[in-house]
Amino acid sequence: MNFQGSDILTAKNLSKADIERIMEVAEGFLPYAKKEKQSDLLNGKILAALFYEPSTRTRLSFETAMLRLGGRTVSVAGMEGSSLMKGETLHDTACVIENFADVIAVRHPQPGSAAEMADAIGIPVLNAGDGAGEHPTQALLDVFTMLQERGKVEGLKIAFVGDLKFGRTVHSLSYLLSHFGVKLYFVSPDALRMPDDIMGDLKERKMDIIETESLEEALKHVDVCYMTRIQQERFTDPQEYQKFKHAYVLTKELVEKYNGKMTIMHPLPRVGEISMNVDELEGASYFRQVGNGVALRMALLALVLGKV
Ligand code: CP
Prior knowledge:
15% strand; alpha/beta; 5-stranded parallel β-sheet; 4-stranded parallel β-sheet; 308 residues; 38% helix
């Protein structure tokens, strides 16, 4: 893939070579993300961070990445502060922002929203989460974190735990991991299983996947346990959410009983599915994972803006 001018909308069409190139560039940006070095690489460039759904990590790490590489940002935080509330379409919004910025990162509740904006304009659009669809930049930073924590991704055994139906990070991450010969354990209540269309795609890619409702069963086998939040905002029936909100809770005791050596990841925010005392464990990598997001997003911005 020629990254310059490209959109990053889905993890589905990234090749192994694309992923490895992004990882290589992100590795080079780690000292800048860790505030050890300074750069003006993106001087004169502007990122529009359009976040029509709540975000702490993704919006601020995109903005931090841009600022630490010498670029600047303009942003929208929340639907209510934007002209979408007056009925403006995503198409028209994109055509407006193209006049201001060199690259867009967008989060919106509707699956396909980032693609809709990208279709309307010529500057790169990065999907920062489109409803229950995908979150490719998070999944890329997750692969980067696996590399950092485990030294390789090839052949890892990985459990995805929680809301696999609405959790967009695991949708994107499944596609990325399909290139690395991994074995996946999908741990969820039956009602929150990985969607059939994605399962179909993964089957076509001949992925080795076990679906189970038992966290304990999966923990015995894995190198990485990737916990997810039950996505309250996607439930139409609040009682359904209540039924599942504590479906899986990873405690220090569980980790020590079943698998003290595994790496524990979470895209965050956590809302109870990882006990606070898990933070003390060496394998608890979710806050390092957040930090990796800055280097990874520096890499994406530099690549699509043709600076590396
Ligand atoms: N992981 C993630 O997308 O976090 P935010 O919702 O805070 O951006």
